[in-house]
Amino acid sequence: MLDIKFIRENPEAVRQAIEKKGLTLELDKLLELDQEVQALKRTIEKIQAERNANAKAAARAKPEERAAMIERGKEIGRQLAELEPRLRTLEAQLKQLLYLTPTLPWEGAPVGPDDSFNVETRVHGNPRTFLFEPLDHVALIEKNGWGDFERAAKVSGSRSYILKGDLMVYEQALLRFALDRMIQAGFTPMSVPSLTKEEALYAHGQFPAARDQVYSVDGGEVYLAGTAEVLLNYLHAGEILAESELPRTYCALSPCFRSEAGSAGRDVRGLMRVHQFNKVEQYVLCKADLDESNRWFETMLSISEGILQALELPYRVIEVSTGDMGLGKYRQVDLETWVPSENRYRETHSCSALLDWQARRAGLRYRDERGKIHYAYTLNNTALATPRILVMLLENHQNEDGTVNVPKAVQPYFGKEKLEPSAL
């Protein structure tokens, strides 16, 4: 959410941001509604002032004058009873439009409507040349008895999975490995609920635009979170922190749930796009300083790259275009990891800076040394998400006999050098 004062003073800059992000928001309608709200507020304030003056005058008036003043007070009350609900309605309409107003994107972001305008900035590692016919991850899982897609679908529906034997243990080892990397980087580890209230999803930015991606529970009273970022971003909602308490650097390991609405027919086979997954998430709440936000952006990106390098996986770095980065993003860089069976890279990490866009929605504020209150800046990035990363690990590190090598960095967590067949 942008500051309404900024929108009033910089309408063309906001209009350009709307165009660059490929949105359909009618800025003129927003500005007209804002003017109507401000005019109605002034009218109500004037009437309230008259009511107060009339009440004071009535208290001092002579008996023969008081009756008329009381009647005038009743008339003023009827006016306010009509105008105040109208103001609340207009304010709610304006708030909904403000929810759909984008952050102005970083000037270095590629401009374009979708991911075809994303730009590869660098590549790390080379795709492996196999001396045998490699299997895709589904075939490896079926060959070794490491999972069961058919029974998972019977129990939970499509895009579900069951991991078995070594692969189940491997997933847990990877998550703990990533969590330890975050702790070593100075982030505070957190456990967070899977259930979240509607206001937290508005604060995060997932509502109202992406409501169809979220599972509702208990008749829509609460929802299943699609990322720990939703909860982390709302922990300090409504608080005013001291500047000395910033930055807050959190990491959370949590189950995540996404409906994947609109993705019918895409990645329906295997582990690439599932409804429930696990993720270690990075989150930073820092003071409203662009240089500091940029430093944290590079730090979080470096952590994720370090994890992929430790997993011995080839990847590339992608500068995400304005139309692909989403409503609230100032800058987004994705890491895409090589998938041998598809002969292409697929996204595994997404590093985002949102400036004060989320903070204004959530009321994330701090007081500086001079006593002035500011909205904070927020950033987030994936540290590791499973089971998607298993696709890359299985396919890139497979052996001709169907076993899969475990990267040296993860071996202490897994306890073996290879994933071996499980009892079927």
Automatic annotation (TrEMBL):
CDD domains: SerRS_core (cd00770)
Principal location listed in the UniProt entry: cytoplasm
Any one GO CC term of the record: cytoplasm
EC number(s) stated in the UniProt entry for this protein: 6.1.1.11
Protein residues bound to ATP: 258-260, 274-277, 347-350
InterPro entries referenced in this protein's UniProt entry, alphabetically: aa-tRNA-synt_IIb (IPR002314), aa-tRNA-synth_II (IPR006195), aa-tRNA-synth_II/BPL/LPL (IPR045864), Ser-tRNA-ligase_type_1 (IPR002317), Ser-tRNA-synth_1_N (IPR015866), SerRS_1_N_sf (IPR042103), SerRS_core (IPR033729), tRNA-bd_arm (IPR010978)
Pathway of action: Aminoacyl-tRNA biosynthesis; selenocysteinyl-tRNA(Sec) biosynthesis; L-seryl-tRNA(Sec) from L-serine and tRNA(Sec): step 1/1
Keyword vocabulary terms for this entry: Aminoacyl-tRNA synthetase, ATP-binding, Cytoplasm, Ligase, Nucleotide-binding, Protein biosynthesis
One of the Pfam families matching this protein, by short name: Seryl_tRNA_N
UniProt subcellular location: Cytoplasm
Assembly notes: Homodimer. The tRNA molecule binds across the dimer.
Family: Belongs to the class-II aminoacyl-tRNA synthetase family. Type-1 seryl-tRNA synthetase subfamily.
PANTHER family xrefs: SERINE--TRNA LIGASE, SERYL-TRNA SYNTHETASE
Protein known as: Serine--tRNA ligase
The gene coding this protein: serS
